[in-house]
Amino acid sequence: VSLGNICRSPIAEAVFRKLVTDEKVENKWMTDSAAVSDWNVGRCPDARALSCLRNHGIETAHKARQITKEDFQTFDYILCMDESNLRDLKRKSNQVKDCKATIELLGSYDPQKQLIIEDPYYGSEKDFETVYEQCVRCCKAFLEKPH
Predict the structure, then answer these.
(1) Domain limits of the chain?
(2) pLDDT tops 90 at residue 32
């Protein structure tokens, strides 16, 4: 989960989907991404995010959406990008009666200890590449953890 669901979280979703497909465990995972805000609902990911993913041989057909109450009841894990997302998600989860999701920073799995995955929206292609690399490290480490 990220603020707008057009940069970081679609990259993380696409990376995780490719990892579980490559590991042949995609049937064990339901993967999606969402936004805390409703600003970009229905939009495709940022062109720079799509270009970054394509450069790594990954395609996505994701359309931005806002997180729902059902997400907290359906998903076992909701992983987010920064402290602001974490606060917003925990506040929203407190309003859900039977929340089963563990809400964490995706960066908490980073072997390089980069806790926050910064929003690259106002940055350059290099910033999108940094997000991609962080997502790969974090998603691999998350997937290796016993669930």
Answers:
(1) 8-144
(2) yes
